[in-house]
UniProtKB/TrEMBL annotation:
Binds 2 Zn(2+) ions. Pfam families: Anti-Pycsar_Apyc1 (PF23023). InterPro entries: RibonucZ/Hydroxyglut_hydro, RNase_Z/BN. This is Ribonuclease Z. The gene is rnz. Keywords: Endonuclease, Hydrolase, Metal-binding, Nuclease, tRNA processing, Zinc. It comes from Methanococcus voltae (strain ATCC BAA-1334 / A3). Zn(2+) 1 binds at H60, H62, H143, D220.
Length: 336
């Protein structure tokens, strides 16, 4: 499971940073979070395939998060896409997509389902195959327009300790399947030459559950502490949070309804994630020195207190392995 940062700038792009776009690769398909201007061209420098995107999640309707949508939808059609596409977003996303499709004589060769979400915590997508799959949640955030964060949580089926299963005399079949499904079963054993019925509960034969990977994407927002607690309850591991400004520019953040690095850091501490990746960096920064200074200060203090939160400043094309919880060296395709 790989996150690919397609664009990491704020409202105005720079030579180094494109408008917002984040792709998640999971089991051969891609999930796209926001689709700023130029996102499809950014994909051409990565392994992200537009034709393998089945779900797009829009955090809010500011241009730097949606202006790449029209071109991407058109390119999918020109590539003879047939698979349906789902687009999730806040109120007015339906009207927005309809207007986009009216521009430029779009001719779409596939079905598009637009899902307009309410501004409340909700599970919006779930795939569960015998305990394996994923869930995606939305959570309302605090920006100058209606906005949502998104959380992806992998589901992992519980594993059986087959040595325990064998010792208990449970045969592979319906009883084992019931245990995997969380049901108790009754078995017959022999003790001192007598037949004895025993009830076996799933915990008797389960290996300690290996939890799946999870990450959250904040979109644009002021810090929302209830959102942090929501992530904590979901045991979220990785948080991608906007930090448009360094902490010295708090007034700017308040005025524009964005977050500072320090505020994103506070959200990550409350949520108890293992990794914070900041993105949506203001175009005013020609150097990341201000952010790097804050990171160094935090790391010095956290070492003294035994904290283990990992920090990263996202750059375009950065890739992050959610299973290994580490940055991968960006794999940028050569441009001819």
């Amino acid at each position: 499971m790989i996150l690919t940062f397609l664009g990491t700038s704020a409202s105005v792009p720079t030579k180094e940073r494109a408008h917002t776009g984040l792709a998640l690769r999971y089991n051969g398909e891609y999930f796209l979070f926001d689709c700023g201007e130029n996102v499809q061209r950014q994909m051409m420098s990565t392994n992200v395939s537009p034709m393998k995107i089945n779900n797009i999640f829009i955090s809010h309707l500011h241009g730097d998060h949606i202006l790449g949508l029209g071109g991407l939808l058109q390119s999918m059609a020109l590539s003879n896409r047939k698979k349906p596409l789902k687009i999730f977003g806040p109120p007015k996303i339906t009207e927005t997509v309809e207007n986009i499709l009216k521009i430029g004589y779009h001719s779409i060769s596939y079905d598009i389902e637009v899902v307009e979400l309410e501004l409340k915590p909700n599970k919006i997508l779930s795939v569960n195959n015998s305990g394996n799959g994923y869930e995606i949640y939305c959570y309302p955030t605090n920006h100058s327009v209606p906005s949502l964060a998104y959380i992806f949580k992998e589901l992992k089926a519980p594993k059986m300790d087959m040595a325990k299963v064998k010792n208990l005399g449970i045969e592979i079949g319906s009883k084992l399947k019931d245990l995997k499904d969380g049901k108790s079963v009754e078995i017959e054993t022999f003790e001192n030459g007598k037949s004895v019925k025993k009830t076996i509960i799933p915990q008797d034969v389960l290996v300690k559950n290996t939890e799946g990977v999870s990450f959250a994407y904040s979109g644009d927002t002021r810090p929302v502490y209830a959102f942090a607690m929501f992530l904590k309850d979901l045991n979220c591991k990785v948080l991608v949070h906007e930090a448009t400004f360094d902490s010295s520019l708090l007034e700017n953040a308040l005025e524009t309804m964005h977050s500072t690095f320090g505020e994103a850091l506070k959200i990550s501490e409350i949520s108890e994630v293992k990794q914070l990746i900041i993105t949506h960096i203001s175009a005013r920064y020609r150097s990341l020195e201000a952010y790097e200074s804050e990171i160094n200060d935090y790391l010095e203090k956290s070492t003294l207190h035994g904290k283990t939160l990992k920090l990263e400043i996202a750059k375009d094309f950065l890739e992050y392995d959610l299973k290994k919880l580490k940055v991968i060296k960006p794999k940028i395709k050569d441009k001819e």
